[in-house]
Design a protein that fits this description.
Length: 207
């Protein structure tokens, strides 16, 4: 029979091993994984000059990658695009025979949502971080975003964030930016995102 101190030591070692395995399995389970929409995200990002990691993060926040998601305000699909935005996109891009249900098609939805986000980014291109302003606008609308601009520091994203009166919108912006940064690290050598980087696509969004 082993001495009591030896049995306790073995038990402690086993506990450490099990704890380590559990932690590793939890970490692995919560790491970002490829999904069927990654090639589309990269293709659209390359075509539009958008940041693919930002697009992916926004999709994650809006729909958790469910293309059939339907929002309470009639938002459709992966990027939760409203039909009026889809119609604006179709008109601007001269897309014939566009229908609102096309927003449930992943590629159409990502193209429309990215077009709308890029449009917002351009509207805030005089600020020190257009992405933050654009994400707030994407979530809460342009009229609200304009109200949150600090008259004393209209280009300052930190002043803008502090003036956001909707806690859900502030959290929305912060969560998407954090997820974007996580994707940049997790997918740095991913086959799809590496291909995007090597293709030399420009990124309109600022860090």
């Amino acid at each position: 029979m082993l001495p009591r101190w030896c049995s306790l030591s073995l038990l402690a070692v086993l506990c450490l091993i099990l704890t380590g395995e559990t932690a590793f399995l939890y970490w692995r389970e919560h790491q970002p994984r490829e999904n069927p929409f990654d090639p589309i995200i990269v293709r659209v990002a390359h075509d539009t000059g958008a940041d693919p990691f930002l697009i992916r993060a926004l999709i994650w926040r809006e729909s958790k990658f469910d293309p059939l998601t339907h929002g309470l305000a009639d938002e459709h699909g992966l990027m939760q695009v409203r039909p009026d935005v889809g119609q604006m996109w179709a008109k601007a891009n001269k897309i014939p025979d566009y229908r609102d249900d096309d927003l449930y098609d992943p590629e159409t939805n990502i193209r429309v949502g990215t077009w709308y986000l890029n449009r917002a980014v351009r509207q805030w291109n005089q600020t020190d971080d257009p992405v933050i302003f654009a994400l707030a606008q994407y979530n809460a609308g342009r009229s609200n975003a304009l109200k949150w601009v600090d008259p004393a520091n209209p280009q300052d994203h930190l002043a803008f964030l502090q003036r956001i009166t909707f806690p859900t919108t502030r959290k929305y912006v912060e969560v998407i930016l954090a997820k974007r940064d996580k994707y940049r690290v997790a997918f740095a050598n991913n086959r799809w995102y590496r291909e995007f980087t090597s293709a030399g696509g420009s990124v309109t969004q600022t860090p």
